[in-house]
Amino acid sequence: MPRRWKFTTGVRPNTVTVYERDRGGPLHIRTWDPTKRNGHGNWVRRSLGHRDRERAKQYALEVAARPETLAEKTAASEENLSTIFNYYLLNRSPRKTISQQRADRRRVELFSAFLGPSTAPERVSLAQWERFCDARLSGEIDARGMPVRKPRAVRARTVEADCRWLVQCLNWATKWRDESGHYLLTSNPLRGFPIPRELNPKRPVATHERYVALRAVTDDVPMEIRWGGRRQEQRSYLSELLDLANYTGRRIRAICSLRYEDLALEEPPFGAIRWPATTDKTGRATTAPIHPVVRDALDRAASRALDSEFLFPSPSDPNKPVTRYLASKWLQKAEKLAGLERLDGGLWHPFRRKWATERKHLPDVDVAAAGGWKSLQALKQSYQHADHETMVRVVLEAGELREAGR
Fold first, then answer.
1. Cα–Cα distance for residue pair 383/377, rounded to 1 Å
2. How many CA atoms lie within 13 A of 318 on its CB side?
3. In which band, very low, low, confident or very high, does the pLDDT at 330 lie, cut at 50, 70 and 90?
4. Over the stretch 342-378, which tens digit does the pLDDT of each residue have?
5. pLDDT tens digits for 132-150?
6. Which residues contact 196 (CB under 8 A, 6 or more apart)?
7. 206-220: per-residue pLDDT in tens?
8. Complete DSSP assignment for 246-305
9. Per residue, what are the HEC states of 25-85?
10. Residue 176 and residue 180: Cα distance in Å, rounded?
11. Surface-to-core class of residue 321, CB atoms within 10 Å of its CB (0-12 exposed, 13-18 middle, 19+ buried)
12. What is the mean pLDDT of the chain?
């Protein structure tokens, strides 16, 4: 049976040992503190909060090289990551959307597990940073920093988002003062560290032909209403959801969560929708006019006269909106009925990219406002794509640059 890993350094009485208590588990450190037991001395032990043996050995060498006790060394190095994370979750995270707050808590778990909550930010080395990126990219650790038995590689874009979050968190710490009036950090120790980038991001774009093929079968996708103890099968909301996704360019979660109070059907020429901040990814409330097809879809939804404040209530609870997960199941079923292959990297979002790309010839400011984009850069970089017809026009419709006066 293999022995548990252990590394010892230093000269007595200042020997330092880093070791495994359980094979494959978090590493611990043990050092001698002569002040314990009324001056007789005793061992001090604590968890390092990570499994990186090379990092543990380096830390043991640093502790052994200095005469202070482990407790004194720990006190000297904090402000630690745990403190900064606690301040961030208490003061910055509540200003974000609910989904962003969940992501904040998940990333706190991720970096606490890999780097160690008691680690001082200044001690995060470039080598540790690169080991984290490698472990995350290869799938050796999951989204919460836990080791995975069967690693499965993740996209660079996923790791990029995690890395950028930590950089932004420490940037925030350089601006936030604690109760004593001191900044949590004087500078960001991760400044200049490389961040993985997705060289070929998957951003599929739906086509008009795909929309037509799906729309032809959406009425054949049923749902089962389970209200008041009764079960009744009827046509799902997929027809209306697809029309809204194709002609508003909005995210499916925002569409599913629409309430009757969000509709402004009296607005010319065909009505408008007041998209609330509570269902917007960026937390912004916007109002946009609607297409005639959207008006027809809203009228069809309203004609059902369902006893709910939501335009698309959940089939199991009229007091809740239909979830995007159920809407996605309906769309996947429609794809099978229409004989379409799934788009690699997207289900509903390709229709948002389709909407943006079809409007490249219109002013960017107005396209962003109508589609709910906060950033023109995000609109042009991630949503508007090159298409063959437009590229042909670029090639054939060029002017001629002539010298002045000729």
1. 10
2. 11
3. very high
4. 998 899 999 999 999 999 999 999 999 999 999 999 9
5. 999 999 999 999 999 999 9
6. 133, 137, 156, 159, 160, 163
7. 999 999 999 999 999
8. HHH---HHHHHT-BGGGEETTSTTT-EEEE-GGGSTT---EEEE--HHHHHHHHHHHHT-
9. CCEEEEEEECCCCCCCCEEEEEECCCCCHHHHHHHHHHHHCCCCCHHHHHHHHCCCHHHHH
10. 11
11. buried
12. 89
Residue 200 amino acid letter:
N
Cα distances from 85 to residues 21, 82, 88, 116, 165, in angstroms, run 27, 5, 5, 12, 11
For residue 27 the two structure tokens come to 């590493």
Amino acid identity of 197?
R
HEC-encoded secondary structure of 340-387: CCCCCCCCCHHHHHHHHHCCCCCCHHHHHHHHCCCCHHHHHHHHCCCC
Provide the pLDDT confidence category of residue 183 given band limits of 50, 70 and 90: confident
Encoded tokens for 287: 């109002």
| Residue type for position 234 | Q
